[in-house]
Amino acid sequence: MKNSIKIVMLFFLGVIVVSCKKEDISPSYHKGEMTILTDESFKSVTEALAEGYMINYPETKIKVVTKKEDLGFLDLLHDKARIVVMSKDLSPEEVKTYEEQVDLKFLPAKFAADAVIFIVPKDSPKESISMEEISQGMKSENKEFIFDGANSSNLNFVAQKLKKQPKDLKFSIIPGSKSIIEELDKYPNKIGVIGLNTFSRPYDKESEKLKSMVKILPVEYKGKIYNTDFENLRKMDYPFTRVLYFLTNEGNFNIANGFIRYSCTQLGQMIVQKEGLQPYNMYRREVQMR
Fold first, then answer.
1. Fold of 114-241
2. What pTM was estimated for this model as a whole?
3. For the chain, the helix, strand and coil percentages under 3-state DSSP, each to the nearest 5
């Protein structure tokens, strides 16, 4: 009889252990840990969205790690990361590689309109810059444009706009967008190239300090001059407007896909707007009066 009781108890203990194991490995969007890889240019908005998600789901822990765009994409392909933030348009070859290695359809989750901006020291007499100046300057041995790195999202995007490969362009490097802003006055004849999100967050002391140190050059394109206000980003009239999107290798509805869904809903889009960027998914309130 005692042996029978022991067998029954062992059976139920086994069931409990198996059940716990299944619970631990089952997909969950509201608990667990995850690392997001993002280019430094998008760090601020990515961190803001991560903070919002963790507030809504306290059992989640999201770490935002900065990595150059190209290298982050490679980590995703090699299963070293579950989610990355991207801006550049992938080539057909890159899309094919993604679909083959990740075994998912390429479905970028677009969530914000950002911009690559051109900056000069505050006291510079220069007031604007033309597409022709940018194109010619990127061929010059003077290397008058300063980027934050050879694999950066900013360089990738400018190269795509000019229909060039980054390796074919001439440029200088100061690692980090913040460093470019702080050191730009040492190079009065140079033009810094950074992401708008570097200092787009309104009412943020550090953002306001960085922004006060430089002048953003409007871009002349097809006879018109465009700045980076919400209207020009929304209509994508500013020539260097770019759309930020998430890519994941997660095939189920776990924390990565939960975070993506959150970022694209109204709550996430409100965070994007508070970051000083243009939400990609517009939510309009319509009131019908009778």
1. D-Maltodextrin-Binding Protein; domain 2 (3.40.190)
2. 0.86
3. 45, 20, 35
